[in-house]
Write a sequence for this structure.
Protein backbone atom coordinates (compact mmCIF):
# COMPACT_ATOMS: atom_id res chain seq x y z
CA UNK A 1 0.00 0.00 0.00
CA UNK A 2 1.37 3.40 -0.95
CA UNK A 3 2.09 5.94 1.76
CA UNK A 4 -0.35 8.85 2.11
CA UNK A 5 1.12 12.04 0.55
CA UNK A 6 2.04 13.63 3.91
CA UNK A 7 3.96 10.55 5.07
CA UNK A 8 5.63 10.12 1.71
CA UNK A 9 6.84 13.72 1.97
CA UNK A 10 8.20 13.10 5.48
CA UNK A 11 9.89 9.86 4.41
CA UNK A 12 11.56 11.46 1.41
CA UNK A 13 12.70 14.79 2.82
CA UNK A 14 12.85 14.63 6.62
CA UNK A 15 13.54 11.00 7.61
CA UNK A 16 17.17 11.29 6.41
CA UNK A 17 17.60 14.11 8.96
CA UNK A 18 16.34 12.06 11.92
CA UNK A 19 18.44 11.09 14.92
CA UNK A 20 18.37 7.87 16.91
CA UNK A 21 15.68 9.03 19.35
CA UNK A 22 13.40 9.96 16.46
CA UNK A 23 12.48 6.27 15.99
CA UNK A 24 12.71 6.68 12.23
CA UNK A 25 9.90 9.28 12.47
CA UNK A 26 7.45 6.39 12.58
CA UNK A 27 5.96 6.92 16.06
CA UNK A 28 3.82 9.65 17.61
CA UNK A 29 6.71 10.99 19.69
CA UNK A 30 10.47 10.68 20.13
CA UNK A 31 12.56 9.29 22.96
CA UNK A 32 15.34 11.47 24.37
CA UNK A 33 17.94 10.56 26.98
CA UNK A 34 19.71 13.72 28.20
CA UNK A 35 23.47 13.41 28.74
CA UNK A 36 24.25 12.52 32.37
CA UNK A 37 24.60 15.46 34.70
CA UNK A 38 23.17 18.07 32.33
CA UNK A 39 20.10 20.30 32.39
CA UNK A 40 17.90 20.54 29.31
CA UNK A 41 17.47 23.95 27.68
CA UNK A 42 14.48 24.38 25.36
CA UNK A 43 13.43 27.27 23.14
CA UNK A 44 11.11 27.76 20.17
CA UNK A 45 11.00 30.28 17.34
CA UNK A 46 8.84 30.55 14.24
CA UNK A 47 9.47 32.09 10.83
CA UNK A 48 6.73 33.28 8.49
CA UNK A 49 7.24 33.83 4.77
CA UNK A 50 7.27 37.53 3.97
CA UNK A 51 7.86 38.46 7.62
CA UNK A 52 11.04 36.69 8.71
CA UNK A 53 12.37 35.79 5.27
CA UNK A 54 11.68 36.89 1.72
CA UNK A 55 9.52 34.74 -0.56
CA UNK A 56 12.32 34.43 -3.13
CA UNK A 57 15.05 33.50 -0.63
CA UNK A 58 16.74 30.21 -1.57
CA UNK A 59 15.08 27.31 0.31
CA UNK A 60 18.50 26.11 1.50
CA UNK A 61 19.06 29.36 3.40
CA UNK A 62 15.51 29.32 4.78
CA UNK A 63 16.09 25.92 6.39
CA UNK A 64 19.44 27.02 7.76
CA UNK A 65 18.10 30.32 9.09
CA UNK A 66 15.24 28.53 10.85
CA UNK A 67 17.74 26.33 12.65
CA UNK A 68 20.23 29.12 13.33
CA UNK A 69 17.84 31.60 14.94
CA UNK A 70 16.91 28.87 17.39
CA UNK A 71 20.55 27.91 17.97
CA UNK A 72 21.13 31.58 18.80
CA UNK A 73 18.73 31.19 21.74
CA UNK A 74 20.85 28.32 23.01
CA UNK A 75 23.98 30.44 22.61
CA UNK A 76 22.39 33.18 24.73
CA UNK A 77 21.88 30.63 27.51
CA UNK A 78 25.41 29.26 27.27
CA UNK A 79 23.98 25.92 26.10
CA UNK A 80 25.15 23.31 23.61
CA UNK A 81 22.80 21.87 20.95
CA UNK A 82 21.35 18.37 21.20
CA UNK A 83 18.30 17.99 18.91
CA UNK A 84 15.19 19.73 17.62
CA UNK A 85 11.52 19.32 16.71
CA UNK A 86 10.07 21.07 13.67
CA UNK A 87 6.64 21.92 12.29
CA UNK A 88 6.24 22.99 8.67
CA UNK A 89 2.96 24.56 7.52
CA UNK A 90 3.47 24.89 3.77
CA UNK A 91 1.27 26.29 1.01
CA UNK A 92 -0.49 23.67 -1.06
CA UNK A 93 1.52 22.87 -4.14
CA UNK A 94 4.95 23.55 -2.61
CA UNK A 95 7.36 21.96 -5.08
CA UNK A 96 9.55 18.94 -4.43
CA UNK A 97 12.53 21.07 -5.49
CA UNK A 98 11.78 23.62 -2.74
CA UNK A 99 11.47 20.85 -0.15
CA UNK A 100 14.71 19.24 -1.31
CA UNK A 101 16.55 22.55 -0.95
CA UNK A 102 15.01 23.24 2.45
CA UNK A 103 15.98 19.78 3.74
CA UNK A 104 19.47 20.06 2.24
CA UNK A 105 20.02 23.30 4.15
CA UNK A 106 18.91 21.67 7.38
CA UNK A 107 21.19 18.69 6.71
CA UNK A 108 24.19 20.95 6.17
CA UNK A 109 23.73 22.81 9.44
CA UNK A 110 22.92 19.62 11.33
CA UNK A 111 26.38 18.42 10.35
CA UNK A 112 28.01 21.75 11.15
CA UNK A 113 26.39 22.19 14.56
CA UNK A 114 26.06 18.54 15.62
CA UNK A 115 22.35 17.86 16.11
CA UNK A 116 19.43 15.99 14.51
CA UNK A 117 15.68 16.26 14.15
CA UNK A 118 13.55 14.18 16.52
CA UNK A 119 10.15 14.75 14.92
CA UNK A 120 7.43 17.34 14.48
CA UNK A 121 4.53 17.86 12.13
CA UNK A 122 3.87 18.74 8.50
CA UNK A 123 0.62 20.34 7.35
CA UNK A 124 -0.72 22.03 4.23
CA UNK A 125 -2.20 25.55 4.38
CA UNK A 126 -3.37 28.18 1.86
CA UNK A 127 -0.26 30.26 2.67
CA UNK A 128 2.03 31.92 3.42
CA UNK A 129 4.49 29.32 4.72
CA UNK A 130 4.84 29.12 8.52
CA UNK A 131 7.84 27.29 9.94
CA UNK A 132 8.34 26.54 13.63
CA UNK A 133 11.27 24.87 15.37
CA UNK A 134 11.81 23.83 18.97
CA UNK A 135 15.48 23.56 19.85
CA UNK A 136 16.80 21.33 22.64
CA UNK A 137 20.19 21.90 24.23
CA UNK A 138 22.03 21.10 27.44
CA UNK A 139 24.02 23.03 30.02
CA UNK A 140 25.77 22.08 33.27
CA UNK A 141 23.34 22.50 36.19
CA UNK A 142 23.24 26.04 37.51
CA UNK A 143 25.47 27.45 34.75
CA UNK A 144 22.90 28.70 32.24
CA UNK A 145 23.19 32.37 31.32
CA UNK A 146 20.07 34.36 32.19
CA UNK A 147 18.64 37.75 31.26
CA UNK A 148 18.46 38.83 34.89
CA UNK A 149 21.68 39.65 36.70
CA UNK A 150 23.16 42.89 35.33
CA UNK A 151 24.24 45.33 38.06
CA UNK A 152 24.86 49.08 38.04
CA UNK A 153 28.38 49.89 36.74
CA UNK A 154 28.61 46.59 34.83
CA UNK A 155 30.07 46.84 31.34
CA UNK A 156 27.79 46.27 28.36
CA UNK A 157 29.28 44.06 25.65
CA UNK A 158 28.15 42.75 22.28
CA UNK A 159 29.64 40.11 19.99
CA UNK A 160 30.47 40.39 16.30
CA UNK A 161 29.06 43.31 14.35
CA UNK A 162 25.75 45.16 14.54
CA UNK A 163 23.48 46.27 11.70
CA UNK A 164 24.39 43.79 8.97
CA UNK A 165 21.03 42.01 9.20
CA UNK A 166 18.99 45.19 8.76
CA UNK A 167 21.22 46.37 5.94
CA UNK A 168 21.09 42.94 4.31
CA UNK A 169 17.30 43.11 4.20
CA UNK A 170 17.57 46.56 2.58
CA UNK A 171 19.97 45.13 0.00
CA UNK A 172 17.67 42.23 -0.85
CA UNK A 173 14.70 44.59 -1.11
CA UNK A 174 16.62 46.81 -3.53
CA UNK A 175 16.86 49.76 -1.13
CA UNK A 176 20.68 49.55 -1.09
CA UNK A 177 23.21 48.44 -3.72
CA UNK A 178 24.04 44.74 -3.93
CA UNK A 179 26.43 43.52 -1.21
CA UNK A 180 26.99 39.75 -0.83
CA UNK A 181 28.24 40.08 2.76
CA UNK A 182 25.17 41.96 3.96
CA UNK A 183 22.75 39.70 2.07
CA UNK A 184 24.37 36.62 3.60
CA UNK A 185 24.23 38.07 7.11
CA UNK A 186 20.46 38.56 6.75
CA UNK A 187 19.87 35.10 5.31
CA UNK A 188 22.40 33.17 7.41
CA UNK A 189 22.96 34.56 10.90
CA UNK A 190 25.84 33.11 12.93
CA UNK A 191 24.74 31.61 16.27
CA UNK A 192 27.51 32.41 18.77
CA UNK A 193 27.47 29.02 20.49
CA UNK A 194 31.17 28.86 21.31
CA UNK A 195 31.10 32.32 22.87
CA UNK A 196 28.00 31.50 24.89
CA UNK A 197 29.65 28.49 26.49
CA UNK A 198 32.89 30.44 27.05
CA UNK A 199 30.93 33.16 28.91
CA UNK A 200 29.50 30.76 31.49
CA UNK A 201 30.66 32.02 34.86
CA UNK A 202 31.82 35.32 33.31
CA UNK A 203 28.71 37.11 32.01
CA UNK A 204 26.22 38.19 34.65
CA UNK A 205 23.35 38.45 32.15
CA UNK A 206 22.96 37.71 28.46
CA UNK A 207 20.54 37.41 25.56
CA UNK A 208 20.76 37.37 21.78
CA UNK A 209 19.95 40.39 19.62
CA UNK A 210 17.04 39.49 17.36
CA UNK A 211 14.50 42.33 17.58
CA UNK A 212 16.98 45.23 17.65
CA UNK A 213 19.86 46.18 19.95
CA UNK A 214 18.01 48.95 21.80
CA UNK A 215 14.85 46.90 22.31
CA UNK A 216 16.69 43.78 23.47
CA UNK A 217 18.89 45.81 25.79
CA UNK A 218 15.67 47.05 27.34
CA UNK A 219 14.80 43.42 28.15
CA UNK A 220 18.10 43.03 30.03
CA UNK A 221 17.41 46.27 31.90
CA UNK A 222 13.92 45.22 32.98
CA UNK A 223 15.09 41.74 34.01
CA UNK A 224 17.93 43.19 36.09
CA UNK A 225 16.04 46.30 37.28
CA UNK A 226 18.83 48.54 36.03
CA UNK A 227 19.27 51.22 33.39
CA UNK A 228 21.80 51.27 30.56
CA UNK A 229 23.77 53.75 28.48
CA UNK A 230 24.42 52.64 24.90
CA UNK A 231 27.13 54.48 22.93
CA UNK A 232 26.47 54.59 19.18
CA UNK A 233 30.09 55.59 18.52
CA UNK A 234 31.20 52.26 20.01
CA UNK A 235 28.99 50.03 17.84
CA UNK A 236 31.12 47.43 16.02
CA UNK A 237 30.42 47.70 12.29
CA UNK A 238 31.51 45.46 9.45
CA UNK A 239 33.36 47.16 6.57
CA UNK A 240 30.16 46.94 4.51
CA UNK A 241 28.05 48.56 7.23
CA UNK A 242 30.69 51.23 7.88
CA UNK A 243 30.64 52.14 4.18
CA UNK A 244 26.85 52.56 4.26
CA UNK A 245 27.04 54.77 7.37
CA UNK A 246 29.83 56.85 5.84
CA UNK A 247 27.63 57.50 2.82
CA UNK A 248 24.52 58.20 4.89
CA UNK A 249 25.08 58.82 8.65
CA UNK A 250 21.33 58.61 9.30
CA UNK A 251 21.72 54.83 9.04
CA UNK A 252 23.74 54.61 12.28
CA UNK A 253 20.89 54.96 14.80
CA UNK A 254 18.74 52.72 12.61
CA UNK A 255 21.35 49.98 12.92
CA UNK A 256 20.83 50.00 16.68
CA UNK A 257 17.13 49.21 16.23
CA UNK A 258 17.03 47.17 13.01
CA UNK A 259 17.18 43.60 14.34
CA UNK A 260 18.25 40.31 12.73
CA UNK A 261 21.77 40.57 14.18
CA UNK A 262 21.69 37.39 16.32
CA UNK A 263 24.74 38.55 18.24
CA UNK A 264 25.15 38.09 22.00
CA UNK A 265 24.48 41.08 24.24
CA UNK A 266 25.78 40.65 27.78
CA UNK A 267 26.77 42.25 31.06
CA UNK A 268 30.04 41.67 32.89
CA UNK A 269 31.72 43.24 35.88
CA UNK A 270 34.39 45.84 34.94
CA UNK A 271 37.03 43.79 36.75
CA UNK A 272 36.18 40.82 34.51
CA UNK A 273 37.07 42.60 31.25
CA UNK A 274 40.18 40.43 30.81
CA UNK A 275 38.08 37.28 31.31
CA UNK A 276 35.60 38.52 28.68
CA UNK A 277 38.43 39.05 26.20
CA UNK A 278 39.83 35.61 26.98
CA UNK A 279 36.40 34.07 26.33
CA UNK A 280 36.35 36.00 23.05
CA UNK A 281 39.74 34.59 22.05
CA UNK A 282 38.77 31.06 23.06
CA UNK A 283 35.57 31.24 21.01
CA UNK A 284 37.13 32.98 18.01
CA UNK A 285 34.42 35.65 18.14
CA UNK A 286 35.09 39.35 18.58
CA UNK A 287 33.45 41.31 21.40
CA UNK A 288 33.13 45.06 21.92
CA UNK A 289 32.28 47.14 24.98
CA UNK A 290 29.42 49.42 23.87
CA UNK A 291 28.23 51.01 27.11
CA UNK A 292 27.43 50.39 30.74
CA UNK A 293 24.59 49.57 33.08
CA UNK A 294 23.38 52.22 35.50
CA UNK A 295 21.35 52.63 38.66
CA UNK A 296 17.81 53.95 38.33
CA UNK A 297 14.89 53.30 35.98
CA UNK A 298 15.02 50.29 33.65
CA UNK A 299 15.51 52.42 30.55
CA UNK A 300 18.04 52.65 27.72
CA UNK A 301 19.82 55.96 27.10
CA UNK A 302 21.18 56.15 23.56
CA UNK A 303 24.18 58.43 23.05
CA UNK A 304 25.05 59.74 19.58
CA UNK A 305 28.55 60.13 18.20
CA UNK A 306 28.72 63.63 19.70
CA UNK A 307 27.76 62.34 23.15
CA UNK A 308 24.28 63.84 23.04
CA UNK A 309 21.15 61.84 23.83
CA UNK A 310 19.19 60.46 20.87
CA UNK A 311 15.61 59.25 20.64
CA UNK A 312 15.34 56.58 17.92
CA UNK A 313 12.35 56.65 15.61
CA UNK A 314 11.49 53.14 16.76
CA UNK A 315 12.83 50.90 19.49
CA UNK A 316 13.00 47.73 17.43
CA UNK A 317 10.90 45.01 15.83
CA UNK A 318 7.50 44.17 17.31
CA UNK A 319 5.42 41.13 16.36
CA UNK A 320 2.16 42.92 17.22
Amino acid sequence: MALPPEFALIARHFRPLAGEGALDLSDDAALLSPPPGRQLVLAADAMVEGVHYLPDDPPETIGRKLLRVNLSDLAAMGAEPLAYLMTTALPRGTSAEWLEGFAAGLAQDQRDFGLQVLGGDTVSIPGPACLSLTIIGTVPPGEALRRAGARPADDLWVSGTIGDGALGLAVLQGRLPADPHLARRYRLPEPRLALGTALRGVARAAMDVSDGLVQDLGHLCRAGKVGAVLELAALPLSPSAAAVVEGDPSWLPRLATGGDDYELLFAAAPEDAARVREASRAAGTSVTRIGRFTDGAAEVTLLGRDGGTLTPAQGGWSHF
Remarks:
- The domain at 155-310 is CATH 3.90.650.10 (Phosphoribosyl-aminoimidazole Synthetase; Chain A, domain 2).
- The two ends are 46 Å apart (CA to CA).
- The chain has two domains: 5-139, 155-310.
